Amino acid sequence: MKKTRLPNDTVVAINSATRRSIKRFGGSEATAEYLGINSRQHIERWYRDDDRSIPLSAVAAIEPEITDGAKPPILSVLADLCGFDLVRRRAETNASMVSISGDVARLTGEVVSTVIEAAADGIVSGTEADAIEDIADKAISELEKIRTQARKVRGA
Fold it and tell me: Does the CA dihedral 112-118-122-123 come out positive or negative?
């Protein structure tokens, strides 16, 4: 099988992105230590040699650690080379929170209706209390989903 070389500008773009990613991670020594590699020179070969690139497993390990609001350099270059834009899922998260909010509003209305209905005769029975608790638990569960989505947006 014939070995195919990448065009020089592609190699330069990948090497440059690798250098930026490693620098943002804390340098070649920090990257080597994090990945369990004995030599910082080994890490530096990933962006200095034309015939050697960073392994995908290393990309997958370090780039999520450095994406504090900025696009991951290597993944961005690879996406661009394939004709894609790399974008966060934030819009999906916002849509999800809006959708869940509708469920919270509906369930909250059901909680209020169940409480009013149960208390209409002045006495809340054990069965009625169970029904109130069940629907309240569902509403709380949906509220917790919104909190989780909000934390994802914040990166917490």
Answer: negative
What does the mean pLDDT of the chain come to?
A: 86
Residue 96: CB partners within 8 Å, gap ≥ 6?
149
The crossing angle, in degrees rounded to 10, of helices 73-81 and 8-25 is: 160
Its pTM stands at 0.55
The answer to whether the beta carbons of residues 77 and 14 sit under 8 Å apart is: yes
Q: Is the pLDDT of residue 3 over 80?
A: no
Amino acid identity at 59: V
Residue 36 half-sphere exposure toward CB, CA atoms < 13 A = 2
- Surface-to-core class of residue 64, CB atoms within 10 Å of its CB (0-12 exposed, 13-18 middle, 19+ buried): exposed
The DSSP secondary-structure symbol of 26 reads: T
First and final C-alpha spacing in the chain: 48
C-alpha Rg value of the chain to the nearest Å: 26
Mean pLDDT of 78-91: 80
